[in-house]
Design brief:
Keywords: Hydrolase, Protease, Serine protease. This is S1 family peptidase. This protein has about 325 residues and is α+β, with helices and mostly antiparallel strands. The chain folds into three domains: about 100 residues, no CATH class; about 90 residues, Trypsin-like serine proteases (Thrombin, subunit H), CATH 2.40.10; about 100 residues, Trypsin-like serine proteases (Thrombin, subunit H), CATH 2.40.10. The chain contains nine helices and 18 strands. The strands form four sheets. Strands 4-5-6-9-8-7 form a six-stranded antiparallel barrel. A six-stranded antiparallel barrel has the order 10-13-14-17-16-15. The longest helix is centred in the first third of the chain and has 16 residues. The radius of gyration is 24 Å and the shape is elongated.
């Protein structure tokens, strides 16, 4: 039985005819070269006898679908896809846009929990990625130590980008780095507001298996356009798992004096782009994009590279940690 666009069977849902109607309206506004002309056609063919703001009316139709369907928190859900299409239209008043937290909850979280890292030494700037997980901000070590000593770094800043405009939203000054050179892991401390703790990814609960599907996320150079930065995402899978030998020194003893000889690494494919330059330190997430399963370390440097490397995050979280090194800019100042 259908009532005002709602189908009432075993489960209440929106009729396909109503859904197609909304899609057609969105399509007309998307391809429109003249907003006023498209608005007139809208009132002639889709909203006869009514006047008002087309954007408000269409937004109401999509909100109706959202309320009826109660779609899950996935960007690919029908009502959320319609919201995303609505937000891409150049409406006269941008206040009509759907809240990104509702329209694209998964991508919104990724934008708010992944940061571009800028390491400044003199006139040079080195780039990497960092991410929030639990109550910590993680990255790799080599973006701070490759081709430079950490003591010679002038400053480190993390940049957060707006998921809608792709432009810089906020900067955080890094005041301390705790790092484990042999594992290529670092934990960053930032100055100011700690609201990022509410947006962090989940910790892994089990070790991965070969062929597991993954989502590589970060800010490689190729995605930077002027002052805008598009969050990079590549869906890959685990190819193999290895125990990589460590270079033995005083930092490979755990705090309980247990000798540590290897670190668990996962080799992942480069089928969709893999880990790219500037991606280092970024999170490798599970297929749903909610849980951190690895830290991106090395990746594609050219067409001959067919795989990337990540540190297994579950193994790291459950390891009896070796002693760390710490560099504190507050003390250095």
């Amino acid at each position: 039985m259908e009532v005002t666009g709602v189908v009432v069977n075993e489960k209440v849902n929106v009729s396909r005819r109503y859904e197609r109607r909304v899609r057609a309206i969105l399509h007309n506004f998307q391809i429109s070269e003249n907003y006023d002309d498209t608005s007139k056609k809208f009132f002639k063919y889709y909203n006869k006898g009514d006047q008002g703001d087309p954007a408000q009316i269409v937004k109401g139709m999509i909100s109706f679908i959202y309320q009826i369907r109660q779609d899950p928190l996935k960007d690919s859900a029908l009502s959320r896809r319609l919201m995303q299409e609505f937000n891409q239209i150049k409406w006269p008043d941008s206040r009509h846009f759907f809240d990104l937290k509702i329209a694209m909850p998964q991508r919104y979280k990724r934008y708010n929990a992944v940061f571009s890292v800028e390491v400044k030494k003199g006139e040079n700037i080195f780039y990497g990625t960092a991410f929030a997980c639990g109550d910590k901000i993680y990255s790799c070590t080599h973006i701070f130590t490759d081709q430079k000593r950490i003591e010679d770094i002038d400053s480190v800043e993390m940049v957060e980008y707006n998921p809608q405009t792709k432009e810089e939203h906020k900067r955080y000054k890094v005041t301390k780095i705790e790092y484990w050179p042999n594992f290529d892991v670092s934990v960053l401390t930032i100055l100011g507001n700690k609201d990022w703790r509410k947006r962090g990814f989940k910790h892994p609960t089990h070790i991965l298996k070969p062929s597991t599907r993954l989502l590589v996320v970060g800010y490689p150079y190729v995605n930077q356009i002027g002052k805008s930065y598009q969050l990079y995402e590549a869906r890959e899978r685990i190819e193999s798992m290895i125990d990589a030998a460590l270079q033995m020194d005083e930092f490979t003893l755990s705090l309980s004096n247990k000798e540590i000889k290897t670190r668990k690494m996962d080799i992942i494919t480069n089928e969709k782009g893999g880990i790219q330059s500037g991606n280092s330190g970024g999170p490798v997430l599970d297929a749903n994009g909610d849980t951190v399963v690895g830290i991106a370390l090395r990746g594609s440097l050219g067409p001959e590279t067919t795989r990337s490397e990540m540190l297994d995050f579950y193994s790291w979280m459950n390891l009896q940690k070796p002693r760390s090194r710490i560099w504190n800019w507050e003390k250095a100042d």
